[in-house]
Amino acid sequence: MAARFRPSAPNSSAAGNGAAAQGQWGRAWEVDWFSLASVLFLLLFAPFIVYFFIMACDQYACSLSAPVWDLAAGHVRLSDIWAKTPGLTGEAAQIYALWVSFQVLLYVALPDLCHKVLPGYVGGVQEGAVTPAGTINKYEINGLQAWIITHLLWLANACYLSWFPPTIIFDNWIPLLWCANILGYAVSTFAMVKGYLFPTNARDCKFTGNFFYNYMMGIEFNPRVGRWFDFKLFFNGRPGIVAWTLINLSFAAKQRELHGHVTNSMILVNVLQAVYVLDFFWNEAWYLKTIDICHEHFGWYLGWGDCVWLPYLYTLQGLYLVHHPVQLAAPHAAGVLLLGLLGYYVFRVANHQKDLFRRTDGRCRIWGRKPRAIACVYTSADGQRHHSKLLASGFWGLARHFNYTGDLLGSLAYCLACGGGHLLPYFYAVYMAVLLTHRCLRDEHRCASKYGGDWARYTAAVPYRLLPGVF
């Protein structure tokens, strides 16, 4: 499924196979006026969007139109809304500091043991892809272990220890938002300063000459502190995604506290999103070869996005269900569950087909047949010619990004679990549709620059991007 927060990244202006391969790696070398305008818009309004959704739930029972109408009609002023918003508290700051510190400790100080006891799981020290400068970084893959330890402690506290109430996250939700923003901006600013003054690898840095673009899209490819603390892997995978399932559990606990029971819709949201989170950690080593690690630099859109955007907007369904508990009819609940599981199946099998095809160099069977592939030749930035193959069988014969189709089905299931009373819980499905459509176009721009006429042959063989017969 789709990975973290991903605002629209400008396309590179580089031309030619070699230059395009270099210019398209992660982010642009030059910034045009439209790209700069997009960057400024996101820097200014993305934090406001998060605040608007959280404020709407806190003050307007999750209505998106009511605060807009109140402001337009003059019933309230922005200062009135802000005055009712809980501020930063010492308790929230302590909770957040302990949380992040604990995840850092699990990340850097506890080597992975899961790969030694879980058949099929790939963990421990793993190599990433080759960076533009030719570096191959090593990573300690222990995210599944961190998730298990964290949730076992949460369960032990809820059942036996009672150190803190299970509703602690919901009870401090808005004060924790300010803590998350502080960390997001702090790590983004540090990453930028580090890129200028003491980069981990100067050859893997990109400078456009534009401060705002450099700040948002990042300068360093893999900023690190010490041997193992990799900013990109840590903030992409921890603490936001580990927290995702804990946040949902806290929302379920609050629903029970307020309404006396946990609805089947809340259970569905918890289960389906937990499947996504566990899939991410089970395949964390595979994640090292995805676009997030292989192409993106580390800047505000990853640093702030993973600290704030992900935990606060990807969990809107659970937050909504605290304020509006929904008990679905059995057929509706079964349909949501089946849709969510279907989306996950499509996503996982599609990715497995591509991974199998790559690992075996096409010497495998997909859907019981020898896979069809389009042979390609491309020239890298160093002038070397390379041969590759593009899979056109299985799910990849139906559409060029059919794994994203599975992702969209799962996203829709989360939202449908909330019924049809409000638009707010459907933000996630709309956002993912925009995100993945843009990513399709961005991926294909890179591939067209890389493969040239061979890419045209591939698109002729597989004419649709996401939905066969539609798009």
UniProtKB/TrEMBL annotation:
<protein>
    <recommendedName>
        <fullName>7-dehydrocholesterol reductase</fullName>
        <ecNumber>1.3.1.21</ecNumber>
    </recommendedName>
</protein>
<feature type="transmembrane region" description="Helical">
    <location>
        <begin position="328"/>
        <end position="347"/>
    </location>
</feature>
<keyword id="KW-0521">NADP</keyword>
<feature type="transmembrane region" description="Helical">
    <location>
        <begin position="258"/>
        <end position="278"/>
    </location>
</feature>
<feature type="transmembrane region" description="Helical">
    <location>
        <begin position="33"/>
        <end position="54"/>
    </location>
</feature>
<keyword id="KW-0443">Lipid metabolism</keyword>
<keyword id="KW-0152">Cholesterol biosynthesis</keyword>
<keyword id="KW-1207">Sterol metabolism</keyword>
<dbReference type="InterPro" id="IPR018083">
    <property type="entry name" value="Sterol_reductase_CS"/>
</dbReference>
<feature type="transmembrane region" description="Helical">
    <location>
        <begin position="411"/>
        <end position="436"/>
    </location>
</feature>
<comment type="function">
    <text>Catalyzes the last step of the cholesterol synthesis pathway, which transforms cholesta-5,7-dien-3beta-ol (7-dehydrocholesterol,7-DHC) into cholesterol by reducing the C7-C8 double bond of its sterol core. Can also metabolize cholesta-5,7,24-trien-3beta-ol (7-dehydrodemosterol, 7-DHD) to desmosterol, which is then metabolized by the Delta(24)-sterol reductase (DHCR24) to cholesterol.</text>
</comment>
<keyword id="KW-0444">Lipid biosynthesis</keyword>
<keyword id="KW-0560">Oxidoreductase</keyword>
<comment type="pathway">
    <text>Steroid biosynthesis; cholesterol biosynthesis.</text>
</comment>
<feature type="transmembrane region" description="Helical">
    <location>
        <begin position="175"/>
        <end position="197"/>
    </location>
</feature>
<comment type="similarity">
    <text>Belongs to the ERG4/ERG24 family.</text>
</comment>
<keyword id="KW-0756">Sterol biosynthesis</keyword>
<keyword id="KW-0812">Transmembrane</keyword>
<feature type="transmembrane region" description="Helical">
    <location>
        <begin position="144"/>
        <end position="163"/>
    </location>
</feature>
<keyword id="KW-0472">Membrane</keyword>
<keyword id="KW-0752">Steroid biosynthesis</keyword>
<keyword id="KW-1133">Transmembrane helix</keyword>
<keyword id="KW-0256">Endoplasmic reticulum</keyword>
<dbReference type="Pfam" id="PF01222">
    <property type="entry name" value="ERG4_ERG24"/>
</dbReference>
<keyword id="KW-0753">Steroid metabolism</keyword>
<dbReference type="InterPro" id="IPR001171">
    <property type="entry name" value="ERG24_DHCR-like"/>
</dbReference>
<keyword id="KW-0153">Cholesterol metabolism</keyword>
